[in-house]
Amino acid sequence: MQMEIAAMPESERTLARRRRIQELLDSGLGRCVLREPACATIVQDSLLFGDGERYRLLAWVVMPNHVHVLIEQMHGWPLAKVVQSWKRHTSRQIHRLGFGIDAPDVPQDADCKSAIPGLWHPDYWDRFIRNDRHFVTAKHYIEENPVTAGLVSSAADWPWGSARLGAD
Predict the structure, then answer these.
(1) Which residues neighbour 18 within 8 Å (Cβ) at sequence distance 6 or greater?
(2) Which pLDDT tens digit goes with each residue over 3-38?
(3) Which of 29, 25, 41, 31 is nearest to 108 (CA)?
(4) Contact 77, 54 (CB under 8 A)
(5) Count of CB atoms within 10 A of residue 136's CB?
(6) pTM summary value
(7) At 40, is the secondary structure helix, strand, or coil?
(8) CA distances, 84 to each of 27, 71, 74, 80, 88 (Å)
(9) pLDDT at residue 75 above 50?
(10) Tens digits of per-residue pLDDT, 93-129?
């Protein structure tokens, strides 16, 4: 697969890499700490906490091993600062529950295939929303992620996402 991707033009390589990473995430790659309801709730509550003050929360989903968030930035709150605050707060809270680098492993099941040493990846992926069509596509992608991953049949049934609230 790597050789196929390497032979593609750069624009196609980027898209192919993103698709492959999403496939791996949806397959349950990683530790899946966020499949624990208490951990997923901590992350969702953290996202909701800053809504209206640090950013406008437009869509989100907390998956077993990753999170998707669509926000509108507010003046004085650069994206890096917002993401850092989410990661710092949620890491502390989740570690207090006994999940983390020094804690015993989360019980493994069919959805989780390997352990990752830290709770969050040190970096994050961001994307600038270009227009209304792109916004609608991104929001749909985020909210439908649990359905795509085979976790629920309807996005509204996933308890850790904006789709269940009918958020706009």
Answers:
(1) none
(2) 666 777 777 777 666 666 666 566 665 668 899 999
(3) 31
(4) yes
(5) 11
(6) 0.77
(7) helix
(8) 26, 15, 15, 6, 6
(9) yes
(10) 998 888 765 444 444 442 333 333 478 888 888 989 9
